[in-house]
Design a protein that fits this description.
Chain lengths: 110, 121
């Protein structure tokens, strides 16, 4: 079965602390993994994708095929990072049909 | 120009009624997707169009749900005999080209609309 699991519904950290949002997946084949973010009252938007191997707003995510994980990390959280984060996957070559996790709310306290 | 536009932003309807939700994709985007997001859940795929045709409708929950995209641009999601369980946020997304093998990643990013919040009472 194709599934994305985000075990934490809420992650609360203080400003300046490291952040790790967990994502595990199950998929038979070659998936492409993404992190989407939704800030308050804004639309869902792409944060980063594993094939780009880039850092966006200080966030990075490494695909670990052995552990089937794609955890999102940031060394020093900022208050403006507070948002809902969704991990998602698709079959490589079909980036619109996404399978999403349930989402994790990141709350960064001052 | 503007991003993906969805109308209405909110819709309240009575159980058993028919509703239509509209999506205006980004101009030139050939791929269009509908998702449904229930409270506390991530978006769930419903259907996707490549041009005018529905390339994959495997996510539609039952035959009360139907979507069209007659001219390859605007799409309408239609729900017949609405039920309280249909209450959710319906999201639309579009991308430049779904067939992205060998193409730059920017061509395949899906851009989402703000969604239509449907409440069935």
């Amino acid at each position: 079965a194709q599934r994305v699991t985000q075990p934490e519904k809420l992650l609360s950290v203080f400003k300046g602390a490291p952040v790790e949002l967990k994502c595990n997946y199950s998929y038979s084949g070659s998936p492409e993994l993404f992190w989407y973010v939704q800030y308050s009252r804004q639309r869902l938007q792409l944060l980063l994708r594993h094939i780009s191997r880039e850092s966006i707003k200080g966030f990075t995510a490494d695909l670990n095929k052995g552990e089937t994980s794609f955890h999102l990390k940031k060394p020093f959280a900022q208050e403006e990072d507070s948002a809902m984060y969704y991990c998602a996957l698709t079959r490589r070559g079909n980036t619109g049909k996404l399978i999403f996790g349930q989402g994790t709310t990141l709350q960064v306290k001052p | 120009g503007a991003g993906v536009s969805q109308t209405p932003s909110n819709k309240v309807t009575e159980k058993g009624k028919y509703v239509e939700l509209r999506c205006d994709p980004i101009s030139g985007h050939t791929a269009l997707y509908w998702y449904r997001q229930s409270l506390g859940q991530g978006p769930e795929f419903l259907i996707y169009f490549q041009g005018t045709g529905a390339a994959d409708d495997s996510g539609l929950p039952n035959d009360r749900f139907f979507a069209v995209r007659p001219e390859g641009s605007v799409s309408t999601l239609k729900i017949q005999r609405t039920e309280r369980g249909d209450s959710a946020v319906y999201l639309c997304a579009s991308s430049l080209n779904n067939r992205n093998l060998g193409q730059p990643t920017a061509n395949t990013e899906a851009f989402f609309g703000q969604g239509t919040r449907l409440t069935v009472v």
